[in-house]
Amino acid sequence: MGVAGTLEYLSDLMGSSGHKHKKKKKQLQTVDLKVRMDCDGCELKVKNAVSSLSGVKSVEINRKQQKVSVTGYVEANKVLKKAKSTGKRAEIWPYVPYNLVAQPYIAGAYDKRAPPGYVRKVEGTATNASVTTLEDPYISMFSDDNPNACSIM
């Protein structure tokens, strides 16, 4: 074992100091937020607040879309909390491109305030329960159990 090996061994011994687990590293990710910004001052305030978080590599702001993109080794909830601490209304980016949604103009997805080409992200589109409730009146209208139910014949 050379000098470098000895120094590495000693630093491992001193660094562990009784702890057997290593700290989990965060993944590099991009967090998109929707933040209400009206002017250059608002934009600068949000940018400075979010940039002060540890692990942030870059902050991009699109004031027209009210979108803040934060790239770095950060957690989404911490970025959101920091953006809200500026006094601005903030939420995780709720929009997806309209071509990724099966039915982009249903009540839950369509949003007038969405940027052009985007709709609100919805988990489930049409459920089977709503389809069966629409079919029930037609099925019972032609029931074999009730001969008076058919108004056509």
Structure report:
It comes from Citrus clementina. GO terms for molecular function: metal ion binding. InterPro entries: HMA_dom, HMA_dom_sf. Keywords: Metal-binding. Residues 28-91 form the HMA domain. The structure is a single chain. The protein starts with a helix and ends in a 12-residue tail after the last helix. The model is unreliable at 125-135 (pLDDT under 50). Helices cover 32% and strands 19% of the residues. It has helices at 3-16, 40-51, 76-84, 128-141; strands at residues 29-35, 56-62, 67-72, 90-92, 95-97, 118-120. It has a domain at 29-94: 2-Layer Sandwich (Alpha-Beta Plaits). The strands form two sheets. Strands 2-3-1-4 form a four-stranded antiparallel sheet, with helices on one face. A two-stranded antiparallel ribbon has the order 5-6. The protein is built from four helices and six strands; from the N terminus they run H-E-H-E-E-H-E-E-E-H. With 153 residues, the chain is of the alpha+beta class. A hairpin with a 4-residue loop joins strand 2 and strand 3.
